[in-house]
Amino acid sequence: MKTIQVKTESARYAVVCERGALSRLGGIVEKVRGCGEVFLLSSPRVWKFWGRAAARALRLPRERVVLFDDHEIAKRVSTVEGVCRKLTRARADRSALLVAMGGGVVGDVAGFAAACYLRGVRIVHVPTTLVAQVDSAIGGKTGVDLPEGKNLVGAFHQPAIVVADLTTLHTLPARQFRSGLYEVIKYGVIGDAELFRFLEHEMEKLLRLDTRSLEWVIERCARQKARIVSQDERESGLRQILNFGHTIGHALEALTGYKRFLHGEAVGWGMLGATQIAVEMKRLSERDANRFSSLVARCGQLPALPRVSSRALVRAIAGDKKSRHGRVGWVLPRSIGAAEIGVNVPDRLVAKVWRELPARYARTEN
Ligand code: GLY
Question: Could you tell me if the CB of 141 is within 6 A of ligand 1?
């Protein structure tokens, strides 16, 4: 069993990365349960594959299972209200322990419900997608989207433990898996050149869900995430580095009504845009930018960019929650394995890169 420790100012907890952990969930959760009852929060599509195993492991009656839609479009305040009302009807009290089993949307919605319900109850995350196992389940960010922007309503609420069972990735649709790979590439670019080289060598194996490659990659990313959030729980500095690709990515998600892109795909485009900005600003070599875009292309085809004017994009970027007085501190790569935060990028350069992005990337793919 691989256990990674997260030590933030407000909490200490373990991230367990283990094949078959789901069948041992009862014993793992028992260690952090306290005196309260356990409630399982998940979505119908995750429940279909893993619900029975989880309920059996937790010895859970059906009344203590709450299911909700986990499409990005459903990551909204009304879904959190629905979850809280179901918890009330199931008589969850302040000692309750919520177990959130699913991908990023399940974790973000359930995590936010846990942060608010009865002014806060405890939560365990059981991430079942690649993006959730390497990123969103670790670090306590929870929240929902507004039509105006991504994750604009939320709270920091650290889990009691994170339990990642790598076998759950085998029921993940290929597109969802690839979407997680873009976030994996992110970790290589921002802080781990060895991981990036590994991805260059092993991408095809990863796409075939090769066990050893996958285990190595997930542990490597989870360790990096744990180290970063342990140093900067509330994103006052270092944690901002995890937002590489998210400035354009979040704008794209909001501009397309959270329907066209999976989160990782929007981040994939966002990283390509940020990388090109870094080249134009002479902060990154063409060679490293080419290595990066070739690796992204090997993950598979990204959904086409929408027809959005550069003005609309710049406006959406200014509305992102990371902006201050309408200005955004960009995360730009300096080399493979190193990035800088808080970079000021002129709007006209963002607009130029946006206009050229589809054609430039199409050349990489061919
Ligand atoms: N997903 C970015 C963060 O957790 O800070």
Answer: yes
pLDDT tens-digit map of 52-80: 999 999 999 999 999 999 999 999 999 99
What are the backbone angles phi and psi of residue 160, rounded to the nearest 5°? -80, -30
Above 90 in pLDDT, residue 201?
yes
The CA distance from 186 to 336, in Å, is 10
Q: What is the DSSP letter of 302?
A: P
Residue 122 beta carbon below 6 angstroms from any ligand 1 atom: no
The closest-lying atom of ligand 1 relative to the alpha carbon of residue 138 is 4
- Please identify which residue in the block is written with the tokens 């256990």: 3
DSSP-derived pairing of the beta strands 338-343 and 65-67: unpaired
* Domains of the chain with CATH codes: 2-171 (3.40.50.1970), 174-365 (1.20.1090.10)
Residue 327, pLDDT score: 75
Query: 45, 125, 263, 322: which one is catalytic?
Result: 263
Cα Rg, the chain, nearest whole Å = 20
Q: What is the tally of helices (H) and strands (E) in the chain?
A: 13, 11
Confidence bin at 125 (pLDDT 50/70/90): very high
